Amino acid sequence: MQIDWRAAAVLLAIPLLFLLAFFAVPFAVVMVDSLSAGDGGFGVSQYAKLLSDWYYFDVLWFTLRVSLWVTLVSFVIGYVLAYVMTRMVQRRWLRRLLYIAVITPLFTSNIVRSFGWMIILGREGLVNQSLLLGGIIDRPLALLNSELSIVIGMSYIMTPFMVLTIAAVLQNIDRTLEHAAQDLGATPVVSFLKVTFPLSMPGVIAGSLIVFTLSVSAYVTPSILSGGKKTVMSMLIYQQYASIFDFHFGAALAVALLLTTLVLLALSSIASSLRPGKRKLLGATV
């Protein structure tokens, strides 16, 4: 079988040109802008400004912390939903209905969903009114404009990505491996912990990376649910561009956020590749 290398090169050039036009070039522009000094020259003064003020480190840490919480919450909820959809629901029509229920919120604007959570978490919202009627609290809780409200709103938005990613992996796991473990005396819980969950780790890792990356760069939901009392990096970058008009420092903040995210993703990939028993699990799936 002969390979048409010219056609292959053309097909390969299309995605490469797309990446070059929509990622490499904009990133290069932002990088150059971050190295531009106010006098028209080049230097690292913008990064020196960033490193000299602990406020920016606090904002970065808050952003990463919120993103980690969102990833954890999305994983817990997403795995349960994915497992129910792929293993416990036998009727095909019901499974499709659950998939539609998971996917449908993705067609709604983040702004609309965030304002919906403002109503739910408000002092007169569903959560506070339910707790008051149940006698659990005697006065409304201040749920809005907090880290908790941001985590709740973003977890709701990010969970579908986790569900779909994990469900795709769970569907492809050979069920005979689980049956074999149970035939050898393993309980359903042990079979899940020793067979199903380890084999589903590629989906967990992929879903976690997707959710974490989207959470780090999220702007709409944190800005709405924080009420201006909490600041994440995306909000800080927007302020530099839209309010303060310090484009060079805004570019430096954007580069710092991107590099931090890339480093964390690289460390996560390295850790997953060094995971004990990975080679054994890969051999079991062949």
Quick gist of this model?
This protein is an all-alpha fold and 286 residues long.
Question: What kind of sheet is the major sheet?
Answer: none
- Give the CATH topology: MetI-like fold
CATH class: Mainly Alpha
Count the beta strands.
Answer: 0
Helix share bin: over 70%
* Number of domain units: 1
| Subunit organisation of the chains | single chain
Number of helices: 14
Structural classification: mainly alpha
The low-pLDDT segments are 281-286
CATH architecture: Orthogonal Bundle
Q: Which value, in Å, is the CA radius of gyration?
A: 23 Å
Q: How much β-strand is present in the residues?
A: under 5%
Mean pLDDT: 89
Q: CATH superfamily assignment?
A: MetI-like
User: Overall 3D geometry?
Assistant: globular
What is the CA-CA span between the terminal residues? Answer: 27 Å
Q: Could you state the order of secondary-structure elements as H and E? A: HHHHHHHHHHHHHH
How would you summarize the topology of this molecule?
Layout: H1 5-34, H2 45-51, H3 54-88, H4 92-103, H5 110-121, H6 126-133, H7 147-171, H8 175-183, H9 188-199, H10 201-216, H11 220-226, H12 233-242, H13 247-273, H14 278-285
Q: What would you say this structure looks like, in words?
A:
This protein is mainly α. It has one domain (53-285): MetI-like fold (Orthogonal Bundle), CATH 1.10.3720. Helices cover 76% and strands 0% of the residues. The chain has helices at residues 5-34, 45-51, 54-88, 92-103, 110-121, 126-133, 147-171, 175-183, 188-199, 201-216, 220-226, 233-242, 247-273, 278-285. It is globular and about 75 Å long. The model is unreliable at 281-286 (pLDDT under 50).
